[in-house]
Amino acid sequence: MEVEEAARKYTYEDYLNRDDDVRYELIDGVTHLMATPARIHQQISSELHGQLYVFLRGKQCRVYAAPFSVRLGVGEGRDTVLEPDIVVVCDKERLDDRGIDGAPDLVVEILSPSTQKKDKTVKFNKYLEHGVKELWYISPDDSTVTVHILKDGEYVTRIYDESDTVAVHTLEGCVINLQEVFAD
């Protein structure tokens, strides 16, 4: 798959058979290049993944960090493969060696200047359409977390800052310390 051909419609099969090392997301059959994450992005991801991993040890749900494919609408003519920064999956039946087929329980996207518009519009609508129960957008620039909880087919939103702790709605008893997540 060549970058210049991004307007061409691709299938999930095309996505699997690409012969390059470039990371893409596939949204409704259109490829989107993925940027290399900044250091602070990786630091935030590592800390949050660590907190979730420790909480989930010995429990049914599992946490995965990117790259991890989330397949939405594959085979329905709108093949979409997203790679959120962190996902939590509680239904192991939908997991395979390539990722998950369908919506994870929790999706975390760490925003970067080059992708935040797409993350907060196109990907937001995909997550909503496919029933992601809880969606977090983490902004390293202003040390905030925007949490969207699915209720009656719509997201209810709350914003937290680095001084807060956040209860993970989909994981009863899990509380994330944002001061640790944003510590640099």
Q: Alpha-carbon distance between the termini?
A: 37 Å
- Count of helical regions: 4
CATH fold name: tt1808, chain A
Strand order across the largest sheet = 3-6-9-10-11-12
The proportion of residues in beta strands is 25-35%
**CATH class bucket:** Alpha Beta
Report the CATH superfamily. tt1808, chain A
Q: What is the CATH-assigned architecture?
A: Alpha-Beta Complex
Structure summary, number of beta strands? 14
Uncertain residue segments? 1-6
Q: Please tell me the overall pLDDT.
A: 91
What gross morphology would you assign? globular
Domain unit count: 1
Tell me the helix content.
10-25%
Structural class: alpha+beta
Taken in chain order, the helices and strands follow as HEEHEEEEEEEHEEEEEH
Explain the layout of strands and helices.
Blueprint lengths: L11 H5 L7 E4 L2 E4 L5 H18 L5 E4 L3 E4 L7 E3 L3 E4 L5 E2 L2 E3 L4 E5 L5 H14 L4 E6 L4 E8 L2 E8 L3 E3 L7 E3 H5 L2
Parallel strand pairs: 4-8, 9-10
Antiparallel strand pairs: 1-2, 3-6, 4-5, 6-9, 7-8, 10-11, 11-12, 13-14
